[in-house]
Specification:
The structure holds 2 protein chains of 2 kinds.
Chain A lengths: L16 E5 L7 E7 L2 E12 L11 E7 L7 H17 L8 E11 L4 H16 L7 E8 L5 E3 L3 H6 L2 E8 L12 E2 L2 E2 L6 E5 L2 E2 H27 L11
Parallel strand pairs in A: 4-5
Antiparallel strand pairs in A: 1-2, 2-3, 3-5, 6-7, 6-8, 8-11, 9-10
Helix pairs in contact in A: 1-2
Chain B lengths: L3 H8 L4 H7 L1 H10 L15 E5 L7 E7 L2 E12 L10 E7 L16 H16 L8 E3 L3 E13 L4 H15 L5 E4 L2 E4 L27 E9 L2 E4 L3 H6 L3 E7 L3 E6 L9 H31 L1
Parallel strand pairs in B: 4-6
Antiparallel strand pairs in B: 1-2, 2-3, 3-6, 5-6, 7-8, 9-10, 9-11, 11-12
Classes of the chains: A alpha+beta, B alpha+beta.
Chain lengths: 243, 302
């Protein structure tokens, strides 16, 4: 089923990706990630001593500050902060530096659809730039589902508003393994098929959601490759600036 | 991490309550190995749920929902307002979720709880995504007057599964809603109090026939915890604080997926886990639908 997208892409095509690291000099790690016109800047400071009041002192804690492009901070920003915090808590190894706080500051430069996935990708690139230990990276993608059941990836803001439903999905980075068996299978599926985070908006049928998951997984493999290539081009001496 | 030998040595002498506080994860895992939870529920069973309608007499619609100990009070007030220029024949729904200090020892006055704006945003997204409320029904005079619905949900006792209880109380309050009668008085909309209906024949109510909202697909939800290979339905706050990976699935009565919300968490959700959560939610939707129907018919008999 052919679908006409305003910018001429086919349903599985992502917008042009660009990632640059170490753009801020005071931050321990920083990255800017753009998907088409959506651009997000992420900065990482940490680990700093001490945790906030209700946090567990036996683990490192993570604090996220989300700054929108214009306007005051309201409920949508607080929700993004919590989602980002829980996603990053699941990928960072929290037991290495207990009783410390790592701060993430996300600044939205331009919002043209798929804002949360862009921010998650930027935060991961900033984490690598800061040299903070992680289990694996996270790649985020936005999938939309239209009335007739077909699924498109990486929508622009206009497409997001027109579609029946969309889902922000975050998967772990695909593993490049030296051993011939490749990645280990968990419950019959490779590790990178597990969902770290899923936030949906709009009603869709259960089958449409699983369809979006498949498309999302395929796209996350492409995103993982892009991330690996852009991060590998950095010099090894610049890798750790934290602490 | 931790002292595995210490727990083995002490466990034979320690009291159950002390073990529960000192080694909470081990305590729960011992129960999970026997497919049961400390409150004697099976892994897929939700807690007892009750709804009572009309809990707040001065509100236009209200409901009190309890899932186990988690208690939510929802109340709706309606006000006439001028609709915006972009949508002149649509009303507006504003949802606010409050967690006052009475609900939990972790919430202090002056410092809003972390969970409150997240649940509020999730609720307004879910209610608008599910299409339960048709905003065009809230219009009174096209372009000039429309209803503004203020839905306030107060958490009275936070014991896990806050979103589930809040959504249930919101849905019950909308089912209980009686739109107040209004009449046109010199070009202004005036609220008519109930007693004046027989006497004033010159003040004809504008919306005499339309007193209840028609609700579209009603959303119901279930929150599950993923821990290793186990899926626990309807967690208490103790379970939520120990095993942190939550998945909330919202389905409506026609089994459309309104929302699948998994905000991070150490455990990755594979396709089989997602399918199991959706199957558990389907069962729960049937139970909740029945409980809601009984509460509504109980109200109508009175």
């Amino acid at each position: 089923m052919e679908v006409d997208r305003a910018d001429g892409r086919n349903p599985n095509q992502l917008r042009p990706l660009a990632c640059s690291c170490s753009i801020l000099h005071r931050a321990h790690g920083s990255a800017s990630w753009s998907q088409g016109d959506t651009k997000v800047l992420a900065a990482v400071y940490g680990p700093k001593a001490g945790t906030k009041k209700n946090e567990n002192p036996e683990k490192a804690s993570i604090e996220v500050i989300w700054k929108p492009r214009t306007g005051q901070i309201g409920k949508p920003e607080k929700e993004y902060e919590i989602i980002l915090k829980r996603t990053l808590q699941s990928i960072c190894i929290l037991t290495i530096n207990p009783n410390t706080t790592t701060s993430f500051i996300i600044q939205v430069v331009h919002d043209d659809g798929a804002l949360l996935p862009c921010a998650i990708n930027a935060a991961c690139a900033a984490l690598v730039d800061a040299g903070i230990p992680m289990k694996h990276l996270a790649v985020a993608i936005c999938c939309c589902s239209a009335e007739s059941g077909y699924c498109i990836l990486d929508p622009t803001k206009l497409e997001e508003q027109k579609m029946k439903a969309f889902a922000y999905l975050v998967f772990p980075n695909s593993i490049l393994s030296v051993l011939p068996e490749g990645s280990s299978l968990v419950q019959g599926e490779p590790m990178e098929h597990g969902i770290i985070t899923s936030v949906t908006h709009g009603a869709m049928s259960v089958d449409d959601y699983f369809h979006c998951l498949e498309r999302g997984r395929a796209a996350s493999a492409k995103l993982s490759d892009f991330l690996r290539r852009s991060l590998q081009s950095k010099l090894p001496g610049d890798l750790s600036k934290a602490g | 991490m931790g002292l595995p030998n210490a727990s083995e040595d002490l466990s034979s002498e320690m009291e159950v309550d002390a073990f529960r506080r000192l080694f909470p994860l081990r305590y729960f895992e011992r129960h999970l190995a026997e497919s049961i939870r400390p409150d004697a529920r099976s892994l897929s069973r939700a807690r007892n749920t009750t709804i009572s309608m009309g809990a707040v007499a001065s509100a236009d619609g209200s409901a009190l929902a309890k899932i186990g100990s988690t208690t939510m009070l929802a109340a709706i007030k309606m006000e006439v307002m001028t609709p915006s220029l972009e949508s002149p024949d649509e009303g507006c729904v504003s949802i606010d979720f409050h967690m006052p200090p009475i609900c939990s020892p972790l919430v202090r006055p002056g410092r809003p709880a972390e969970a409150a704006p997240v649940v509020a945003k999730q609720l307004s997204d879910t209610i608008s995504s599910s299409g339960m409320i048709n905003l065009k029904e809230l219009s009174l005079v096209g372009g000039k007057a429309a209803w503004m619905v203020y839905l306030d949900i107060y958490c009275l006792d936070a014991d896990g599964a806050l979103f589930d209880a809040a959504l249930l109380s919101a849905v019950a309050a909308f089912s209980n809603l009686q739109i107040p009668t209004v009449s046109l008085d010199d070009g202004k909309i005036v609220m008519l109090p109930e007693e004046q209906k027989e006497e004033n024949s010159e003040k004809e109510p504008v919306n005499k026939e339309k007193r209840k909202l028609t609700l579209g697909g009603i959303p119901f939800s279930l929150t599950c915890i993923l821990h290793k290979n186990y899926i626990l339905a309807d967690p208490t706050s103790e379970e939520e604080s120990i095993m942190e990976t939550l998945v909330t699935v919202v389905l409506d009565s026609s089994n459309q997926l309104v929302s699948l919300y998994k905000p991070g968490g150490a455990v990755l959700a594979y396709t089989s886990a997602v399918q199991d959560c959706i199957a558990l939610t389907r069962q729960r939707v049937k139970e909740l639908h029945q409980i809601l129907e009984e509460a509504i018919s109980g109200m109508e008999i009175d």
